[in-house]
Amino acid sequence: METFDWQGRRIAWERAGSGPAVVFCHGTPWSSWLWRPFAEALSGDFTVYLWDMPGYGRSSKDAEHPVDFGVQAEAFRALLAHWRLDRPHVVAHDYGGAVSLRAHLVHGVPYASLFMADVVAIPPSGSPFFRLVKDHPDVLAQVPPYIHEALVRAYIGNASFRELREADLAELAAPWLGEEGQPAFYRQIAAYDERYLVENEERLGRVDLPVHVLWGAEDTWIPQATGERLAAGIPGATFTAVPGAGHLVQLDAPVALAAGLRSWLTRVSAGLPGRVER
After folding, report:
1. What angle do CA 28, 32, 37 make, to 5 degrees?
2. pTM of full prediction above 0.70
3. 3-class state of residue 232 by DSSP
4. Model confidence at 278: pLDDT above 50
5. Are 200 and 168 in contact (CB under 8 A)?
6. What is the structure's pLDDT at 190?
7. What's the rounded Cα separation, in Å, for the pair 38 and 209?
8. In the predicted model, what is the mean pLDDT of residues 185-211?
9. What is the pLDDT of residue 183?
10. Which helix (H) or strand (E) holds 249?
11. Residue 225 and residue 248: Cα distance in Å, rounded?
12. Measuring CA to CA, how many Å separate 63 from each of 3, 74, 98, 106?
């Protein structure tokens, strides 16, 4: 793991492989861990980059640092410049969709292509628990650690259509536990501001690059109809639904996601029209 210091924050990142650059963006309450197996599988043909957004995973979680969509998009722009990447392929999940879209649409960061899986990108979004936390972040941040851990584990488990393995659930919950992780968990939800998603949707017609949207057909956090609306708003974008997968498509349908992602990247990196094998 390497780190990039940006505006007082420590951003954890890693790189592997060789070939065209592919950058993976995670969402909330996740980290780059979700994308690691897919990055490793692609590293024989691509140079893959993983990073944890400030406030997430192995990156710094200082209370004084904002973690909203706007800040994360600026951090992403700075990190791409640090890596000296010009037009990488970007793969995003959840919150990473809003971040990558804003970096492109507002800050003018160019991509070779954009692959979005069950993303938070346009309104509305947020589960009932997410909305509860947003309305009462200070109160919930003070619950006893054992209650907080139970809440986090239940929340994360609810994102999967299939029951998560205990090892996977523990890995996903770990960054949000302890004296640093517990308040950080509630801060990142409290920072949610839907106006960024409204701005994204208003600008979708300006996206001028190959885009594919993939969605778990059983996603109860963000319904498939939202993904279809997102794809319809982007000129030339394509859409695929994955049966038997919820919001955590990486763990619910890893084979289908891996096959679709490799098919997409192989075609667009060769300059062929973007299409995902079904």
Report:
1. 130
2. yes
3. helix
4. no
5. no
6. 87
7. 22
8. 94
9. 92
10. helix 249-252
11. 17
12. 19, 18, 22, 26
